[in-house]
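I am still getting used to backbone structure tokens and would like to learn alongside you. Please make up or recall a protein chain and show it to me in full. Would you write everything just below, so we can both look at the same thing?
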Amino acid sequence: MHAWLCENPVGVEALSWKELPTPQPGPGQVRVKIEAASLNFPDLLIVQNKYQIKPALPFVPGSEFAGVVEAVGEGVTQLKVGQPVACLHGTGGFATHTVVPAALCLPLPAQCDLREAAGFIMTYATSHHALLDRGQLKAGETVLVLGAAGGVGTAAIQIAKAAGARVIAAASSQDKCELCLRIGADAAIDYSREGLPQAFRDAVKRETGGKGPDVIYDPVGGDFAEPAFRSIAWRGRYLVVGFASGPIPSLPLNLALLKGAAIVGVFWGDFAKREAKANAAMLGELTRWWTEGKIRPVIDRALPMKELPQAYALMGSRGVKGKLVLVN
């Protein structure tokens, strides 16, 4: 097998494509022949030693992937050789093969698109947990999605629409706004066109008829967090999903008081561990929605696995719409 190996977590440039022994699954494990792996923001942080999870060195990065079960270990009964699966393991995805606990594998329909499957679990589970569990989104409410053309943003648009909400997408270019409208957003705001934060706030006010959004989904942080929060509706919920822009914003707490609003943290990874039954039910619902066509991962492009450094560069340029996928 071959894999991208991180032996010194100082950045993407330190990764190397190496031949390694093909691993054998132990009890409760399966070996997956990886067909596709998606690139997520944590995959960048983890090779820079900036992520909250710090694997023992050396490790193979790549948190999320899809493929076919090639071998099963002792005690594995829920999966069989030849079964297509998607998996979110945290590491191991940027390779031709990997061994993972069978319990972390999501069985897939036989004819599913494995490239789409590779970009399914993290973004859709995060967005479903954020909007429907933490945000308690109801049909007829309005959602403002920041960073709406990215992986979690495109998932949030589709899930909010599936829940019967009105969606306002905010993105950093006209191209990205057009994508958001194509996948279901009711309106779109171009950050670059609006320019200053006050102009952005005015645009949100205009698109909501002065009421403001009931739920704000923010995976970005940065300069637009405060003007977005200032625009929130009475009893609104501001979902803190992540800080893709880099800076962690400071929100004046008096705004929450004046609007009767809630600032709600979203950490799907810990939810999945602490509330495993609820998480399994959620993944089941998402899989049904996918097979029914209510949601569908947005794939910007697929690159050969050997071009991982180029994929990282594209993600860093913020030119990606949806998800980047690496294929074997």
